[in-house]
Amino acid sequence: MKVAVVCSNGKVGKLVVKEAQAAGLKVTGFAREENKSEAKNFVQKDLFALTKADLEGFDLVVDAFGAWAEVDLPNHSKSLAHLCDLLSGTETRLVIVGGAGSLYVNKEHTVQVMDGPDFPDIFKPLASAQGKALENLRKRDDVKWTFISPAG
User: Fold this and answer.
1) How many angstroms separate the CA atoms of 68 and 97, rounded?
2) How far apart are CA 52 and CA 31, in angstroms?
3) SS3 of 46, please?
4) DSSP H stretches of helix in 1-152
5) DSSP for residue 123
């Protein structure tokens, strides 16, 4: 299986690269700066500069984008929309690494972890940005996607 890890230099990206390669997958890392991961194959390119051709031939694309600064939080939605547009209509699966804030805590799916009184204020802006990206993703039926939310 051929796997592309977008934002492979980040905390999550580095771990995904390491684990995927250990599992025997053919991994290519993509990041805007020089390779800081264990990726044996690497393309130095900003996420927003990626093209359809860059992701062609991969069975799986892992979106490991992450941003904490308030000014960068809208990029969670923008980057995900860009990757979806590149993979639209293809057989390539997109896996997005999200956060626990988007998990539902009731059977009606009306309350999320981030809505709870015990959810730390410091994480609310990030959880909200990731939640908005997931909300937009749910409206797409042209991309094969999986959004992974770790346990709270």
Assistant:
1) 14
2) 16
3) coil
4) 11-22, 52-55, 75-87, 124-137
5) G
pLDDT per position as a tens digit, 23-44: 999 999 999 999 999 999 999 9
Which tokens is 26 given? 């053919």
| SS3 at position 105 | coil
- Please provide residue 4's backbone torsions phi and psi, each rounded to the nearest 5 degrees: -105, 130
CA distance 152 to 103: 8
DSSP conformational letter for 112: B
52-79 pLDDT tens trace: 999 999 999 999 999 989 899 999 999 9
What is the C-alpha separation between 18 and 13, in angstroms, rounded?
9
The structure's pTM equals: 0.93
CA distance 23 to 34: 24
Between CA 143 and CA 147 the distance in angstroms is: 12
